[in-house]
Amino acid sequence: MSLELYITYIFATTLILVIPGPTIILVISQAVNHGRKSVMPLAAGVVLGDFTAMTLSLLGLGAIMSTSATLFILFKWIGALYLLYLGINMWRANPKSGEIQHGKKEISPLSLFKSSFIVTALNPKGIAFFVAFLPQFINHNEPLLSQLLLLGGTFLFMALVNATLYALFATQLRKSIEKTSVNKWFNRCGGAALIGASLFTASMQRSA
Q1: Residue 96 carries which DSSP code?
Q2: TM spans, by residue (predicted)?
Q3: Does residue 66 register a pLDDT over 80?
Q4: For residue 58, how far is the Cα from the chain centroid?
Q5: What CA–CA distance (Å, rounded) separates 167 from 36?
C-alpha cells in the first residue's frame, strides 16, 4: 500500500470518527455521570464493538445485511431499543446531593463496557460501513491479509483514541455538575440525547 493511499485512509477515518454518533453520545453521557474510572471501560467497549462489526463485515454479514431487510431491521431495532432503555434510565435518574463528589452512585466497569460494546457492535450502519469503506483502500495486486491488518488495526487504534478523548473531555464537565440541580439537568439532557440517538437509529434505512 502506498503512503499516499494510507494517509488518505487516515484522513477519511478521522473525519468519520470525530463526528458524534450514537456511540459517542453514549460515551459522553456515561463519562460525565461516572467520571475518569469510566473512560477505559467505555473506550474498550467501543473498540471491541468496532472489531466485532468489522469482523462480521469481513465474514460477509455486511453484504448480507445490504440485501436482507429483515436482518438489517433486526440489528437496527435491537440497537435502538437498547439506546432507548439507557436514555430513559438516565432521564429518570434522581441524583442526591453529594453523589458526584463522594461516588455513592457507582456502576461497574463491566456494565460500562457492555453498554458501549452493544451500541457499537449492533449499529447496522457500522457493519455496512466496513463493507463499503475498507475495500476502497485495498490494492488487489498486493497481499490481502497484510492490508486488512494494517487498515483494520489503524481504524481500531483511532477509534480507541477518539473514544478516549471524548470521554476525558466529558469528565472535565463533571466538575460543573456537582450540584444536585445541575446534575439532574444534565441527566435530562443526556437522557434526551440517548433517546434521540435511539430514534435516529430506528429511522435508519437500508442502502439500496
Answers
A1: P
A2: 6-28, 40-65, 71-91, 112-138, 144-169
A3: no
A4: 19
A5: 8
